[in-house]
Amino acid sequence: MIQKKVCMLGTFAVGKTSLVRRFIESIYSDKYHTTVGVKVDKKVVKAGETELTLVLWDIEGAETENDLRTSYLRGAGGYILVADGTRNDTLYTALAIQARTEETVGKVPFLLLLNKADLSEQWSVSERETDALREKGWDVIITSAKTGSSVEGAFQTLANKMVEV
Amino acid sequence: MSDLPSPIIDFLLGLTDDTLSPAYLLVTDDGLTQWGGDLESYGITGLQEHMDVSDNIPFLIGLLPLGTGSVFLPNVQTKEGTFADVYLFHREQGTWILLMDATATTNRQLNMQQKLYDSRLQVTDLERESDALLKANITLEQLVRERTMDLYQTIHQLQEQLTVRERAEKERKERRSQAS
After folding, report:
1. pLDDT in tens, B43-82
2. A92 touches B at CB < 8 Å
3. Is the pTM for the entire model greater than 0.90?
4. Which residue of chain A is at minimal alpha-carbon distance from B128?
5. Which of A70, B66, B119, B125 could form a disulfide bond with B95, CB atoms 3.0-4.6 angstroms apart?
6. Residues sharing a CB contact under 8 Å with residue B26, sequence separation 6 or more, in sequence order
């Protein structure tokens, strides 16, 4: 079976761990638990006719691109950038992390998830900003680890992209 | 360490063994060749010669073959509640993978980081509430200005009406006095 390493990247408290928990175990906790280092989980998905094991590296939040420990990225077949849609600055950290990641692992498939869609009244990322990224060819998906909205679909989208490569 | 006296070297090795639970694997082109140390404490079991280690150790997927050079992966959770500092380095025998327990340092870091990020999130919440209050205050001030303007206009209209009525009353009184 094909196995692909996928790194979860973004600054702190954007919901990386919650997205992985939602995807792997279909659970969610409102309490914020910070991550130190990395936690590795696996899940088998189907991409078309291909069975694929996603090996998810839930990596500690990086406050800036320079805080990103690039040794964790080694061997990544894809990555998921996560930003908090209610904290606009987290989007710009994600953009900087993307540039650093591409320098390290090259052009591999990735997605940008704008998480916390359930907090729509606090949403601070504008459509103009997301449209600009989509125009650059980025896959931008609005998710909620809390409700599960678009979470499964996001991981599936990345799996499909990795199989196509 | 070569210039250290042997008792010190022995002590350091003993200390490492006691406190860091070192464990190792050696991987070559033929797969897993050697392993040892306290692998079980990291949740690593069921190893067999020539197996693909990434079948049993998911965090090695994508890392092997290593090629030349070395990789350091700090604070890797190897099982629930256990963290290891993982070193991969190439020597003539193949790729060595060394695990050393990092649970205590990771937990200390977790506690500090949790407090730091909790307080940062509280600051963000306070800033958000402050912004909302500021916007609400601006809206209120605008409403007060509009109401004050309405009030001035109403007072002005009332004063005009009062003047008209007073004038009419005066004229009525003058007409009445002339008539009498």
Report:
1. 999 999 999 998 889 999 989 888 878 999 999 999 999 9
2. no
3. no
4. A122
5. B66
6. B32, B33, B34, B35, B93, B94, B95, B96, B97
